[in-house]
Every structure is written in structure tokens, then in C-alpha cells.
Amino acid sequence: MDGLFDSGSRAWSFLPQITLPIFRGGALRANLDVAQVQKRIEIANYEKSIQAAFAEVADGLAGKRTLDEQIRSEQLLVAASQKAYQLAEQRFQEGVDDNLTLLDAQRTQYGAQQTLVRTRLTRLNNLIHLYKALGGGWTEHTVQSGATGQPSARSPG
């Protein structure tokens, strides 16, 4: 008890400590203004993101419609080139046409088939982008396979 009121004990301290922001009024108003400006910037960025998402969906839907029409047209072209090849083959077998005509019909048929395959691939890529624009995506699940014990990835579509 003898050393209770000594200077090194720090048991009694009569100095009040005030931590109120009395003299920082201008800084607080400036910080509030900065926060409001940042809020407006974030709102503008959010609106911009929404507009970009709507544009992606609209582009995807328009592309799907256009590619569907193009695939139908190319399927008709493949069918017509198949028929032309069959006719050229018959004419070649009958001796009416030479082998060059048959090969040209075959080349035309293969070209039409390749174009159809490329358009179908483009349509599938378009559907993937449309699916992502609508909020879809891949969720990867790792599952242990029974025989090897190695993880295998499944992605539901």
C-alpha cells in the first residue's frame, strides 16, 4: 500500500483522454463526399455491367437464330450435293461422264459437308456463350474413380 500513490504505479490517473473528432470537421465532410462519389462510380459500373450482359444475351439470341437458318440452308446444300454426286456416279458407271466430273461432284459434296460441320461448331460455341451470358457455367466435381483411385472430373451441362 505504501507505493500505491507513487509516480510509477499508474494506479491513479486524473488526466482525461478525449478522442472525439472535434477539430476534424472538414476532413470528415471530405471523406463523406469521397464515399458518395465512389458510390456513384460503383452504381455506374454496375449499370454498365448490366447493359453489357443484356447486349451479350441479345447478341447470343440473334446469333442462334441466324445460325439455325444457316444450318437449315447448308443441310439443303449437302442434300443437293449428295444427289449431284449420286447422279455423277451413275453417269460415270454408264460411261456418259468421265472420272473428273465424278471427282468434282465428290469435292463439292465434301466442301458442303465441311461447311455444315463448321457452322454447327459455330452454333455450339454460340450456345455456350449464350448459356454463360444467361448466368450458367461449369461446376467441376472431383470424384474418385473406383479402379484406379485417380480423381476424375465431371462437369454437368
Mean pLDDT: 81
Order of SSEs, N→C?
Answer: HHEE
Proportion of helical residues = 55-70%
Structural class: mainly alpha
Beta-strand percentage range? 5-15%
Total count of helical runs of at least 4 residues: 2
Your description of this structure?
The chain is mainly alpha-helical. It has a domain at about 55-135. The chain has 2 helices and 2 strands; from the N terminus they run H-H-E-E. The chain has helices spanning about 25-95, 100-135; strands at about 140-145, 150-155. The protein has a two-stranded antiparallel sheet with strand order 1-2. Strand 1 and strand 2 form a beta hairpin. Helix 1 (about 25-95) runs antiparallel to helix 2 (about 100-135). The chain is elongated, with a radius of gyration of 37 Å.
Secondary structure elements and pairings:
Layout: H1 25-94, H2 99-133, E1 141-144, E2 151-154
Antiparallel strand pairs: 1-2
What labels would you give this structure?
157 residues, mainly alpha, two-stranded antiparallel ribbon, 2 helices, 67% helix
Q: Would you kindly provide a brief summary of this structure?
A:
The protein has 157 residues and is mainly alpha-helical. The chain has helices spanning 25-94, 99-133, and strands at residues 141-144, 151-154.
